[in-house]
Amino acid sequence: MKKLGRILLLMTLFCAQNFFAQTKTLQPEQVFALYFDTFVKQDEQALNKLNSYLLPFLGTENTYRMDLKKSYHQDVQYLTTLFLADLPKEKADVCKKDAEEYYNTLLNNLKNTRYTLKSVREVKNEFAANSFVMELNVDLIFSVPEKPVGLKPVNIKRMMAGELQNYLKKQVKAFSEPGKEVTVQQIFRLYQVKKDGNTYYWNGGPQELVWKLNDSYFKSFN
């Protein structure tokens, strides 16, 4: 058993070294794809590949140690709490399950976002001398309902609990069966890092990607 364990360990190390060798030459668009699949599609395999790519030039302390499923659940809970915050407790308690289902459907739909890369260009980094960033011009493609009904805070407060539940159920159905696509153009940046004769790319953290995507998505059906 010990011999088998050593063999498996050596195979794992060999695969890891082989992956590092492959990822050293990744192009900006390939690195962006890893970020997109990790933080938009919440793909665990993409997260592992991204961490393996970042490890040689950022170190273990700057890789992403996170549970994507837990993070997704927390996002649903946060949006649900925010949505129900101004309602009386009894009404909020009655509608909580439907609100959770609504935001779960909304965010699940967001995970299915696609993109088309239009162009990649190198520009000077305005914050660091002799440094460059790669600007990726991307078309984000969202699937959205044909006619989603916007909710204003005043409408939520005036609705009876049953009315609000019914509304949320209709929204769940609408976002579960989106009828059209909306394309939004965005610019994303990747910073160049030179190390050991190799050029690496990273986005400094996923906040910009997530913020721009969420902002574009929610605006696309309002």
Number of strand elements: 4
What is the tally of helical segments?
8
Terminal Cα span: 61 Å
What is the average per-residue confidence, as pLDDT, rounded to a whole number? 86
Which keywords apply here?
single chain; 4 strands; elongated; 222 residues; alpha+beta; disordered N terminus
What does this structure look like?
By secondary structure, the chain is α+β, with helices and mostly antiparallel strands. It contains eight helices and four strands, in the order αααααββααββα. The chain has helices at 2-23, 28-39, 44-58, 68-84, 89-111, 153-158, 161-176, 207-220, and strands spanning 114-124, 132-144, 180-195, 198-202. Strands 1-2-3-4 form a four-stranded antiparallel β-sheet. Strand 3 (180-195) and strand 4 (198-202) form a beta hairpin. Helix 5 runs parallel beside helix 7. The longest helix is centred in the middle third of the chain and has 23 residues, at 89-111. The chain is elongated.
Task: Kindly summarize this structure in a few lines.
The protein is 56% helix and 20% strand. It is α+β, with helices and mostly antiparallel strands.
Please write out the topology.
Elements: H1 2-23, H2 28-39, H3 44-58, H4 68-84, H5 89-111, E1 114-124, E2 132-144, H6 153-158, H7 161-176, E3 180-195, E4 198-202, H8 207-220
Antiparallel strand pairs: 1-2, 2-3, 3-4
Helix pairs in contact: 2-3, 4-5, 5-7
